[in-house]
Design goal:
four-stranded antiparallel sheet, binds zinc ion, alpha+beta, 263 residues
Length: 263
């Protein structure tokens, strides 16, 4: 599932493949960019902000543009060598192809694909809270933003990218299990918001640089999480069956014994 760490990894893959390169071709397969041609443009850098990807480009006349994309649940970018088979996903999911002399970057099922002046990036990402994997990560500001909505459930608050940017459903479930906090707990009743935020950052940071997301330290299939995706399986700590229920717009997984509802 693309969360902050996956997006950070993706930005790095794109950066290694294309940074500094002049594009020899582009092929946009979305209506809003169908006539856009980036041939001759230079890729300055690839960056991530929360779950948003920002590919910064310089045009032949020196104009700065940012190609924005969002992976949501199912998007992906892959880099291939020229001539290599594009094996990641079916071709009908391709939204854009960028070619340079040394690499081909293919974007699959991307969302919110847009080419905007780089100076206007803030219009797309300015609402985001502190980026857990950003150089400017600000845990105190994340805590302040969370605490500003004391009645909201912590399960929903951690997913709200305006509070802090990068936590998706997997890390939300895992952080709350590790903290022993029910996802339904109002933010005001969470015992240690700063500790919760710090743990989320550590879990994401630990998964930078690899595609298998693990919160347990185990990378083997079936062992990578405590509660996420483990409905009806025994809790790794107490043996109770893990539960799955809807919370807000998303499902949540939790252990009813290790994460009791506070009354
Ligand atoms: Zn348990």
């Amino acid at each position: 599932m693309p969360e902050g760490d996956t997006v950070w990894n993706t930005a790095r893959v794109l950066h290694r493949a294309l940074a500094g390169a002049r594009l020899t071709g582009s092929d946009f397969r979305v209506p809003q960019l169908a006539t856009t041609d980036l041939t001759g443009w230079t890729v300055r850098e690839s960056a991530s902000r929360g779950k948003h990807l920002l590919l910064r480009l310089a045009g032949p006349a020196g104009e700065d543009r940012t190609l924005h994309s969002h992976l949501r649940m199912d998007g992906a970018w892959r880099a291939y060598a020229p001539g290599e088979r594009w094996s990641a996903r079916p071709a009908h999911l391709i939204r854009v192809v960028l070619r340079s002399a040394g690499a081909v970057a293919v974007g699959y099922h991307l969302h919110e694909l847009a080419l905007i002046p780089t100076a206007e990036e803030e219009s797309l990402v300015g609402h985001l809270g502190p980026d857990l994997l950003g150089a400017d990560w600000d845990p105190a500001e994340a805590v302040r933003r969370l605490a500003a909505h004391p009645e909201q459930s912590i399960g929903e608050a951690l997913l709200d990218q305006r509070n802090l940017a990068g936590v998706g459903n997997l890390y939300k479930c895992e952080v709350l299990f590790l903290r022993g906090v029910s996802p339904w707990t109002p933010v005001r009743d969470v015992p240690d918001l700063a500790g919760t935020v710090a743990l989320a950052q550590r879990l994401l940071a630990a998964n930078r640089g690899r595609w298998t997301q693990s919160t347990t330290g185990v990378l083997r299939r079936g062992g990578t999480s405590y509660v996420y995706g483990r409905r009806a399986q025994p809790c790794r700590r107490c043996g109770t069956a893990i539960r799955k229920e809807e919370l807000g717009e998303r499902v949540t997984y939790w252990c009813p014994v290790c994460q009791p509802e506070r009354t």
